[in-house]
Amino acid sequence: MKVQKKVLGQEHQDTLSSMAMNDAEKLEVQVIETCKKKLGADYLDTLTSIANLASTYRNQGRWDAAEELEVQNQGRWDAAEELEVQVMETCKKKLGADHPDTLASMNNLAHTQKSLGQVIDAIQLMRECVQLCQQRFRPNHPNLLSSLATLAQWEVIEP
């Protein structure tokens, strides 16, 4: 980073991007530590925070660190997926398929499936979530827009 600042300058786009990644990494480590203390290592928010840190490591080109985190997290994601399936099914039965809580649980499960490498299942579930969001919400609703953006990203990777 020091060399980058010297060669490119403090305000160059690449320098700023590197600085942002370093800041993100520090914050994500803090979030993980706090989540583990307050919620536990197997809590969904903790697992998501670890996945976010792994993503930051990948963006920094730190492939070994990213892979190590993902391997450590793998068993916990399996447990998280089981719980999320139960939550989603319960929400569907009790609240209906297009209830905002049901849609949030579908979205969460799709993200977990993607983290587990179940990309096709994740895309299929996110498509269902988007369809239900389109029926439930106005066109500019944040949940709909977020789900649409996620689906578009995933379909580029695995059409």
TrEMBL record:
<protein>
    <recommendedName>
        <fullName>Kinesin light chain</fullName>
    </recommendedName>
</protein>
<dbReference type="InterPro" id="IPR053137">
    <property type="entry name" value="NLR-like"/>
</dbReference>
<dbReference type="Pfam" id="PF13374">
    <property type="entry name" value="TPR_10"/>
</dbReference>
<dbReference type="InterPro" id="IPR011990">
    <property type="entry name" value="TPR-like_helical_dom_sf"/>
</dbReference>
